[in-house]
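Ticket reopened. Same input as before:
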Amino acid sequence: MDDLADSLASDLDEAFPDLVSSLQHGIFSGLRQLTGDHHRAEDLTQEAFIRAYRAMRTYPAERIRAIRLRGWIWTIALNVARNDVRAESRRPTPTRLEEAGYLPEEPPDSEAWNRRWTLLPAAQRRAVILRHVAGLSYQEISEVTGRPATTVRSDVSRGLARLRSVIVRETNEEERK
Amino acid sequence: MTLEKELERLSVPAPTGVLDGVVLGTGLSDGFSVFESPLGSVVVAFNPLGVSAVDLFTDGFEVRFSDRFRRRLLEARPPRGWEDLIIQALAEGTPGALPVDFRSVTPFQRQVLEQTASIPRGETRSYGWLASRAGRPKAARAVGQTMARNPVPLVIPCHRVVLSDGRIGHYGLGGAERKRRLLRVEGAIG
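Engineering reply: fixed in the latest deploy. New output:
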């Protein structure tokens, strides 16, 4: 990631697609769980990177070099998701994939997870998704959410505990049927 | 399976369109679509600033584009509302409400091209006339070079600019014969 920040600082346009390639899967997967909506997550992921690019264009090289990329992009992504930003109309959209009859890859048990997430308080849901789906460290989550790292730790462990009990309850209900 | 492992499985590849959407949305690559024009099929390239290039839809248009503009091309749909504007601009030979990305030309060339856009269909103007309109009456040669550099022929009707002695002059989009054909279709010459 540090190498990437260096490359972005020396040639933003050349290196930016590499940044997208290396972070898009984590950002998309996290947003997919946070929003419960595949297309929404796709739009928001794009929007977050486009905003990141525009911001970087205004930064001097030293500032870009100092950015901790994953946390920084996630801060933008959560903002975009929170404000439910819609894409501007003045934007070309790719056609290749539609024509190829492309089907998106859905994560497993989508419906079950969409339901489970609604049973968690917002802070726990966000912390668990950032930690265990998007793969952020506690420190990164703390920077992204503005909550102390110790609080993030307890959000994650409480969230996991809650999910376990939700899943146990689901299993019991299944067995009763 | 542990809960943590199950959560890891929710990490999936981003849809393939995300990267393309980002490079198009940032303007790192331009989008292109093929349209019909009085000269047959043409490639129209666009980015969030406007239409950036018009070229004949022939082999190598992607290379010609990246050689000149230093950006890549991706097949794409134009921004909402632009498709009709492009069709209209190509048919009438004037940009109308369609935005044009002039970053590939100098400020003087831009001024000349904007004057060119005002030449009505069915009429022609000389290089000297354009030079005067752009505030540099002696710059007919620079005007000629500007026409050769017009990134969006047909949309900006450089084919309506001819030599003051009536000769037809050069045409970047396929040579003088096509220029003559266009002017004939528009009723500017017999």
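Chain B has a mean pLDDT of 95. The CA atoms of residues 122 and 187 of chain B lie 5 Å apart. Please confirm and we'll close it.
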